[in-house]
Amino acid sequence: xxxxxxxxxxxxxxxxxxxxxxxxxxxxxxxxxxxxxxxxxxxxxxxxxxxxxxxxxxxxxxxxxxxxxxxxxxxxxxxxxxxxxxxxxxxxxxxxxxxxxxxxxxxxxxxxxxxxxxxxxxxxxxxxxxxxxxxxxxxxxxxxxxxxxxxxxxxxxxxxxxxxxxxxxxxxxxxxxxxxxxxxxxxxxxxxxxxxxxxxxxxxxxxxxxxxxxxxxxxxxxxxxxxxxxxxxxxxxxxxxxxxxxxxxxxxxxxxxxxxxxxxxxxxxxxxxxxxxxxxxxxxxxxxxxxxxxxxxxxxxxxxxxxxxxxxxxxxxxxxxxxxxxxxx
Length: 329
Prior knowledge:
Helices cover about 35% and strands about 20% of the residues. It is α/β, with parallel strands linked by helices and about 325 residues long. About 50% of the residues are buried.
């Protein structure tokens, strides 16, 4: 076992490198992914080692990136497309929803589209407009797409490889403000024995209330659980990991144990992932609930200017307040 303590961004880099080594049909494409190594340096060094035919600097045209990837996938390649920032994905939205998501069904199962669309998402880095969005619900709502998001370096390393190996189109959301957070990663991890890609996981066991999060909010939820423990409350934290398909069996098991649930995400609350999760918990665990399922989300406004983003983003205090309200019922 070759375990190293590395950042989430470096874990993604190692995972992409391993995927390129293992399958000559894997190609990476996107704006500045080659010579520059990507804005966040996630693809750093890959073009140098694998060449310009495998790691391709594309024009500044998201619709062109995804449209080209569709053609490559039909011809047997496995394109990995980087959308430079979350807010830049919308020019490619038509290609993703009308082509990538539908080709398998349109062809009656004859054509696979093994495309991975990498999107750095979320706020917390002091960026300008269009650089701090959380568009995951758009894609989770779209039949024919799978949507996943990592929260720590170990998951990042394995999940990106699993996504590339999948025959289904996958939107892979990367929590950009966590790129520099470190964790232990087994760089010899065998995918065959790895935790499944489309499965949620208990990140911290507890007995008093269940806090459900994904991507950048998992760290916030864990910090809230640590703070709550000082007041004698034992919170269970679940990292969803997969947003479509949702894996809620661990969530149901937890809520039946704790009787309380709080869902946390950065995206606005209106019609967000929390709405669907709350509805399903209520359907499945109604008689176990001691209080309504509560949500802690971003506000229903466009993402604010960087100087006030900390007022917008869910934080430890807002999560703990929701837990308090749950116990107040």
